[in-house]
Write a structure and sequence with these properties.
This protein has 299 residues and is an alpha/beta fold. The protein contains four helices and 15 strands. It has a seven-stranded mixed β-sheet with strand order 1-15-14-11-13-12-2. A four-stranded antiparallel β-sheet has the order 3-4-5-8, with no helix packed on it. A four-stranded antiparallel β-sheet has the order 7-6-9-10. A hairpin with a 7-residue loop joins strand 4 and strand 5. Helix 2 crosses helix 3. The longest helix has 12 residues. The radius of gyration is 20 Å and the shape is globular.
């Protein structure tokens, strides 16, 4: 969905139309068939996980913490962290937003954040997305992910406005000018040849790298951080995962596996490594992705 002028973008659900059942093939055991140009990025097929990352770390967004001049807001007593790092590709960019309090809150708080994705020239329009979430009583933090449509690769900055319990909080909001000066260079303008998601340690969460600046891009996430909405995979061409990691994903985050299933059925590609000699685990991979028959009606 594209908005070329400033407006509120609302997505009431995750479906953008009935997924095509024509494109739900999973490329299994492709670690054995990787092109030579991809080999430095992954371990061999006999290893337990895809852990290696390219030496060149690419700019792909940043983590911004507010307030800038004090620890907590003078208005709400809260602090906010906005993580804009993701793949530089067309699709949806899930922005991770975390609100924290210095002490356990004594009452529920409702938080509204309105993101503005813009470019240097206002004539190119602006994308705006708004989402509400709660900071429950007795807690010290709450987070949410906002799926921001990315229809231009030349994204220059992301600003935002925050309301806590219906009252605008300027200390937690980032104006357009500050966003421009702070985020300059953190979001590259160049197209990426291929965009890939792999499993990696928490220390490299949302880091992006590539052997060269334009060949392809690899984003690393720990298993527990894999998106649970299929649209958040749309900026990737490939999700590369080891068979043991797929089993871990199925047991620890079934919602993320369901999201991968839905993404595959819309045309996404999952590369699964280490499926054993003579493809002996291929049937299990097929069962994971429900390649036989329709998905359950609620998915």
């Amino acid at each position: 969905m594209i908005v070329r002028k400033t407006s509120r973008f609302c997505h009431g659900g995750e479906r953008r139309g009935r997924p095509s059942v024509r494109c739900f093939l999973v490329s299994a055991a492709v670690m054995l068939a990787f092109p030579l140009c991809l080999q430095p990025l992954v371990l061999q097929a006999q290893t337990s996980s895809i852990q290696q990352m390219p030496a060149n770390i690419q700019p792909n967004g940043m983590v911004m913490k507010l307030p800038l001049k004090q620890k907590i807001s003078r208005k709400s007593g809260l602090a906010i962290e906005v993580d804009t790092r993701w793949a530089e590709n067309y699709g949806y960019r899930p922005i991770r937003v975390t609100v924290t309090a210095p002490n356990a809150t004594t009452s529920d708080h409702s938080v509204t954040i309105r993101l503005h994705a813009g470019w240097w020239s206002r004539t190119q329009g602006q994308m705006t997305v708004e989402q509400d979430f709660d900071l429950p009583a007795g807690s010290m933090s709450a987070n949410t992910q906002i799926s921001l449509p990315q229809y231009r690769l030349a994204l220059q900055f992301i600003s935002w406005e925050v309301w806590v319990d219906g009252v605008r909080d300027n200390d937690l909001s980032l104006d357009e000018v500050t966003a421009m000066t702070t985020m300059g260079g953190s979001l590259p303008y160049m197209p990426i040849g291929l965009s890939m998601l792999v499993v990696g340690p928490t220390s490299r969460q949302r880091q992006s790298g590539a052997p060269t600046t334009q060949a392809f891009q690899v984003l690393s996430l720990p298993i527990g951080e894999f998106p649970v909405r299929w649209i958040d995979y749309t900026s990737f061409d490939i999700v590369a995962i080891d068979f043991s990691e797929l089993r871990q994903l199925a047991s620890s985050s079934p919602d993320a596996l369901t999201a991968l299933r839905r993404w595959v059925r819309t045309g996404g590609h999952v590369w699964v490594g280490n499926i054993g000699e003579d493809w002996k685990r291929l049937a299990e991979v097929g069962d994971d992705f429900v390649l036989r028959g329709p998905l359950p009606s609620d998915q």
